[in-house]
Amino acid sequence: MKAVSIHSFGGPEVLQIEEVIQPTPASDEILVQVFASGINPADWVVRQGGNDFLRPFLKLPIILGVDAAGIVAEIGSEVTAFKKGDLVYGTANFPGDGSYAEYCVAKANQFALKPKSLDFIHAAGVPLASLTAWTALFAHGSFKAGQRVLIQGASGGVGSFAVQFAKAKGAYVIGIASTGNLDYLKHLGADQVIDYTSQKFEETVSDIDLVVEASPQRDNTERLKAISVLKLGGTFVSVNIDAPVNEEVKVALAQKQAKGEFPAYQARREWLEEIAALIDKGDVKVSIDKVFPMEEVAAAHRKSETWHVRGKLILEIKKML
Ligand SMILES: NC(=O)c1ccc[n+]([C@@H]2O[C@H](COP(=O)([O-])OP(=O)(O)OC[C@H]3O[C@@H](n4cnc5c(N)ncnc54)[C@H](OP(=O)(O)O)[C@@H]3O)[C@@H](O)[C@H]2O)c1
Questions:
Q1: Distance 155 CA to ligand 1 centre (A)
Q2: Tens place of pLDDT for every residue, the chain, 321 residues?
Q3: What number does CATH give the domain 129-261?
Q4: SS in 3 state form for 199-219?
Q5: Cα(80) to centroid of ligand 1, in Å?
Q6: Is the minimum distance from the CB of 132 to ligand 1 under 6 angstroms?
Q7: How far is the CA of 49 from the centre of ligand 1 (A)?
């Protein structure tokens, strides 16, 4: 099968399209014929050799890619949730050989039936970013309907889903992005938008129940500002688990009696099913910034590395006829 793999860590030039052996699913896995794969920052972080968190788990050569949308081609002996021919979306085993390939294997519980209203291109943009937003808001964010929720990086992959999930579940949502993305945030349903290029959010909002740091900033000074707008007893969730907080941030959290959470995404079928239902109901939209053919994977990585993606970038593996 054709796959995008790397034999050494480095820049986009290390990406190679090559013929590799099609994988075989273990007893608890499925083999998915991949039609489209979402591009995520995690893909080029792996390409570069990983961060402190990932590095010990990376073995070369490796096929990149986490998000996949496609058709179940084979099921492991213990898998009961799927049958051959099911149209699915989910996340490949991570870290490990991934979804920039004509076929990938994954634990069956990391996949669900794809939203019926989405084609493979749009479905491939959902899994990792939406699961990260879901994990942040609902598993770690102490989210409750009626709360005031502030999303940083609201126009990106994770942020776009966080805005829509929080809105769909009854929050007052404030999104932060750059000037050109403010209308996009309103289109997603944000009640209030802040332009980080011309406004100081810490002087604009207050009494926030939950801040989600879904921007790529990894900056403890920015975190202090985010904690300053929290209500007493609020929650600060950062999805940037590779950027630990310093003592000053710990003290600020304690003074606010606030919770600080740094979760990795959890890949769970039941969450992907709930997300698919929200999408099919029309409560959540999937915005695609650009679709790249497999041959242009290096260009896709370069675009993702700018950190200015509106919604999702997609790698098309196979065209639907
Ligand atoms: N914990 C996990 O398991 C997990 C999983 C996935 C992702 N992540 C992390 O989540 C973060 C977001 O990922 P993503 O896939 O959503 O990335 P993305 O699609 O590239 O989005 C990044 C967003 O950040 C905004 N941004 C860029 N520079 C900024 C700045 N200086 N200040 C404020 N906002 C800025 C951009 O908005 P504008 O274009 O409007 O500036 C952009 O929409 C990344 O740091 C990623 O590593 C963590």
A1: 8
A2: 999 999 999 999 999 999 999 999 999 999 999 999 999 999 999 999 999 889 999 999 999 999 999 999 999 999 999 999 999 999 999 999 999 999 999 999 999 999 999 999 999 999 999 999 999 999 999 999 999 999 999 999 999 999 999 999 999 999 999 999 999 999 999 999 999 999 999 999 999 999 999 999 999 999 999 999 999 999 999 999 999 999 999 999 999 999 999 999 999 999 999 999 999 999 999 999 999 999 999 999 999 999 999 999 999 999 986
A3: 3.40.50.720
A4: CCHHHHCCCEEEEEECCCCCC
A5: 36
A6: yes
A7: 19
Domain boundaries, the chain: 2-126+286-316, 129-261
What residue owns the CA closest to ligand 1's atom 5? 132
158 contacts 129 by C-beta, under 8 angstroms:
yes
Q: Would you say the CB of residue 17 lies under 6 angstroms from ligand 1? A: no
Range 2-126+286-316: architecture per CATH: Alpha-Beta Complex (3.90)
DSSP per-residue codes, 45-71: HHHTT--TTTGGG--SSEE---EEEEE
Token digits for 21?
């052996």
